Amino acid sequence: MLIDPVHGMEGVRNGLLLWYERILPALLPFSVISYILVATNNLSFFSKILHPLIKRVIPVSPQGVYPLLAGFLFGFPLGSKIVSQLLETEQISIKEAQILLSVCNNISPVFITGYMVHQCIGNDRYMFPAIVCIYLPPLLFGSLQMRRTEKIDVHQKNAAPRSQITFKIMDAGIMNAFETLLKLCGYIVIFSILCQPLLFLQKRLPAFALGISGLLEITNGISFICNYSLKKTVMFLLCNTITAFGGLSGIAQTSSMIGDTSLSVKAYVRDKFLFSIGTLILSVLYLRCI
Predict the structure, then answer these.
(1) What string of DSSP letters covers 11-64?
(2) d(C-alpha 97, C-alpha 40), whole Å
(3) Pick the residue with more confidence: 77 or 100?
(4) Which residue among 54, 66, 114, 246 is least crowded, i.e. fewest CB within 10 A of its CB?
């Protein structure tokens, strides 16, 4: 910021635009609604309908259905925020929360199909394979871990009778959502600034710039990968792998969501690393079969 303020401010601008155009409209309404549903113990609707089906794949508790569903549909870090809130209100156990944190805190399918595959890779036939390669490892992990774990502690607090949605709860939900999204804005801006110097290394040290950008933040990492003259298959392979890991920016954002709980960030990072290896293997197998 001091040595090269022009490009430093460019990084700030890019981070703010990314937050304002993509993150804010996508996550704000769902964050408010999720807070209200959890705070008023109104998750029974999802549990009654979906739990009999979902427990056949991943044997979560009835309260674990919603974070699993929201995490896969709306993307991270909403999954980690909901898991944290359910744990704080003692609606799920610490064991289940730790497993769900890794399983449901994923990149949204809209980001994978719209940004990664359609906009960056430029080949829509990779949409479904990309979703399978990225989502299958955490689903298999969740299924195995839940079955290995002894029955999810049933001594967890029973959900209180459903409360009415009042303006006070709505006000708390709105403030909580904005606090969450402002935290995300800060992390996105910081990592956008860190990614900016890599633009100067693209020609001199392309492999280094490519690796560091993907490790730092996946949006910039995917953009870097697709700006190189690589084959579509190589783009597919690399983009899938870094998306499954989520980048250091994703880890930092997740850590901020669970900071007030006893959930382990180390276990989360370990699991995401394993998922990225699983995604890499599945991507290679897919490319060999086509």
Answers:
(1) HHHHHHHHIIIIIHHHHHHHHHHHHHHHHTT--HHHHHHHHHHHHHHS---GGG
(2) 19
(3) 100
(4) 114
